[in-house]
Amino acid sequence: MDLKTIKNLLNLISDSDVNEVEIEEGDFKIRVKKEADTIYRGESSPVYMAGTYPGQQPQAAPAPPPQTAPPAPAQATAGAAPEGGSEDKYITVRSPIVGTFYKSPSPESDPFVSIGDTVSKGDVLCIIEAMKIMNEIESEHSGKIVKMLAENAQPVEFDQPLFLIEPS
C-alpha cells in the first residue's frame, strides 16, 4: 500500500462516523483509530495510549503527580470550597465522567432540578452525555439544591463540581 492510498484512507475516516478501521493486504497490516484507548487505574486519572503495532511494546504512561490528600469520591464530597466560609456545610456533587452536561431530558422539557428544589437520595439531577450515551446522574444525598455550577449543554470534566446541596 502506498503513501497516497494511506493518506486517502485517513481523509475518508476523518470525514466519516467510523471510529476504527483495520486493513490487511498480504503481509501489510494497518489499523487506524480516531480516539485513543483509555485505561483507568483505580481512582487515578485516565491514561491515554496511542495504538501500537504488532511486536511493539506500549510506552509507559508518565507517573501521576504525588497527591498530598486522597482523591475525592466522584459523586459527592462534603466541603465545597477549600477557602472555608459558609459553603463548608454543603455537599458538592461532582461529575463522574467526562461529557456534556444537560439539566433536562430534552430541550423542551423542564430541568430535572432547580435552585431551591429539595431532592432525595436517588433523584436524577442531570444527564451527562458521553459517547452518545445519556448517563443520568443521581443524588447520593437528600437535601436542597443551593447552586448549579455547570452550564446547560456545556462540556464537563471528570470530578468537576456540578451542584451544591445543603443536606437535610
Key features?
four-stranded antiparallel β-sheet; OB fold (Dihydrolipoamide Acetyltransferase, E2P); 7% helix; 1 helix; 168 residues
Total number of strands: 13
Nearest-angstrom radius of gyration? 21 Å
Work out the count of structural domains: 2
| CATH structural class of the largest domain | Mainly Beta
Ends apart, CA distance between termini: 66 Å
Approximate strand percentage: 35-45%
| Uncertain residue segments | 50-56, 70-85
CATH superfamily of the largest domain: RNA polymerase II/Efflux pump adaptor protein, barrel-sandwich hybrid domain
What global shape is seen?
A: elongated
Share of helix among residues? under 10%
CATH topology of the largest domain: OB fold (Dihydrolipoamide Acetyltransferase, E2P)
Order of helices and strands: HEEEEEEEEEEEEE
Give the structural class.
Answer: mainly beta
